[in-house]
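Before the break, one more example. Copy the sequence into your notebook; we will annotate it together after we see the structure.
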Amino acid sequence: MKVKARVNVSGIVQGVGFRPFVYRLALELGLKGYVRNLGDAGVEIVVEGEQSSIERFVKLLKERKPSTARIDELTVSYSTDLENFGSFEIVRSSEELKGEFFSIPPDVGICEECVREMRDPSSRWYRYPFTACAVCGPRFTVMFSVPYDRENTSMGFFPMCEHCYREYHYDVRNRRFHTEGICCSLCGPRTFLVDPGGELVEAKNPIAEAAKLLREGYILAVKGIGGFHLAAITTEDEPIRKLRERKRRPYQPFAIMSPSLEEVERFAVVSDAERAWLTSPQRPIVLLQKKEPFPLSELIAPGLHNVGVMLAYTGLHLLLLEESKQPALIMTSGNRRGSPIAKDNEEALKSLRGIADYFLLHNRIIVNRCDDSVLRVNDGTTVLIRRSRGFAIDRVRLPSFVKDRGERNVLALGAMLQNTISLVKGGSSLFTSQYIGDVENLETYRYLEETVDKLLALTKTRNVDVVACDLHPGFLTTRLAEELSRACEAKLVRVQHHHAHAATTMLEYSVPPDERVLAVVVDGYGYGDDGNAWGGEFLLATYSSYERVGYLAPAPFIGGDRNTLFPARMAVSYLSKFLGRSELLQFVEKAKLAKASGLRELEIRALIDALYRSDNPPLVTTSLGRLLDAFSSLLGICYRRTYEGEPAIRLESVAWRSKNDFDIFDVPLRKVGGKIVLDTSSLFEEVYSKLNDVKKQRLASSILHSLGLALGSAAAELAELHGAEKVLLSGGAAANYFILTDVKRVVEERGLTFLFGQSYPPGDGGISAGQTMVALFST
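Here is what the structure looks like once it is written out:
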């Protein structure tokens, strides 16, 4: 008996070759009807035929779906009311919103089949830099709106040639059949090379000419799919030194891009998990251990044991690497310090002038700027550092208990640093934006505003019920949240920083809303309930509330943010807890702390005077980040911070050289006011006493192992005391190899469940997702 079935599919089903796949499957099974994209980024299929054939069709939809597709929801309704279709067709998309679950397709790295065509002299795509197909190429970065149809992307400005038109409309077996990004050298985008004044550099092959300039030591701005990179060769010091001077990045590591795994393995150690990430559709930057001796310039990642590496993820990048004949090229974000990555040609010529010597441009519009994603693998555990290209703005389907709180739309503005924003739509779906950056200036603030508008537009969210933000009253993100809550007539919820960190991880593991979890949150700074700088917290948390049951021993925090720029100030603060004033002055003079850090002696003396003055108790910090800064300065590793997290990052790299050769120092637990305090001051005193007797590498390793084991032990004790079965670890310092692996080991040895989020960064880039959950469950 013939029946009609209406199949609605949601997930990542637009921009991944799903409709052509459905078309071929329907023809194979002799079914008639149609498939079309919907305005909610889902797909609607209507088929007629024997019920058994339709049931097999539905089964094969799930089993054979394209590799980059993801089915979150599939519903089937049958009817005997036939329309007697004469064939099966891909029909015009609809603006209808039929499903509540949908996703925006993320950008996908170039596939092997496209690479083969680019290398085939007989192919229409031979050496063509914008080669893409149904399973690869830009998606989110070229989208104006959904549904994902060519006219809704910047590819709509490139009319198809007759060859592409035929393959798109009629060649059902071709992998570019109904692929919106289809183009070739006859009809697609083109590259061109210009000088800093915007004057065209005559070249038959702009990419080959750009590669020649790179080999000659010039710095190039290269337009990619989500923004610009600044490129330089990696085998000589001088171009990198020049780039550092121009970009004012004296030590911050540069990411590098390589053409193949074989090249990467010549200069870095690559595990199976790291290999899988390097070749994944997301193609993130992966932090890899350097091989010794390191055959590339040490100026790429000075003083570090690892280097950030990604494989070429577009044809343009691959051709530039091949023409340059380099094992890797520097590909660092194309922006001035503190500003968003440049995305438009004119914008790049203006903002990158004085940094880049030449500009390799193309004429395809980047609609949504999107930085590269960054991650590392710590002993098999993936740690996202920056969640952006390849991930954004993918949808997370929320547990049913979230929707039980009501079908509300919640917008969260995140933190000030490493900012992302998140949106809960209808209590069912969570969308997190691409990386925005540090919201400390007008340019990034405007980028944040732009991202809010685009996120709401792409997800077709017409109203916002709740706006969430950080508890800190001075953040620019808090200011924007206040403005949006007034404009939308939405409730404003201020979320404590570390509670949001915990809630993000709890969400990833679908922790029930009535279960209390022991959260260890370690980072640089979060505004505490008492107005102090928190950052080493033990919280007994649910989504709606938390109790601070422990913390790291407070240290004086005189001077606020100046302590983050000059870790030597934190070293002095910790030393003041057990040294007399004259002893501390002697140490400062002997260590030449003023000269090493760039601080004036007058400033250090003023700090010491304030530390020993008892009539005006200073603000304090419990931050693990500031403690690691202090240790880094004490050991003479980093006296002045030039990039976010530098003192702790360099401390870890020194420790890496002795990661299996260390001592365990005691970090006592004390009870203060019914809370457990981890006495890190005792650890600082222990290390100070061994400065002249133990090698720096061994001391650094001992510090980090001791802290990791102490944090794990304190967490396990608190969990058992309060009846919690799960311990989670989050915060920016949780990305540290030693902290993560040691806390995990101790907690699991105590028979507790250890939670560490791998879908969102443990640092501030993941905080907006947690803010949505706290806002939902506390209102």
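The mean pLDDT is 94. The chain has four domains: 2-90, 191-362, 400-495+767-777, 533-540+550-755. Try to locate both features in your own notes.
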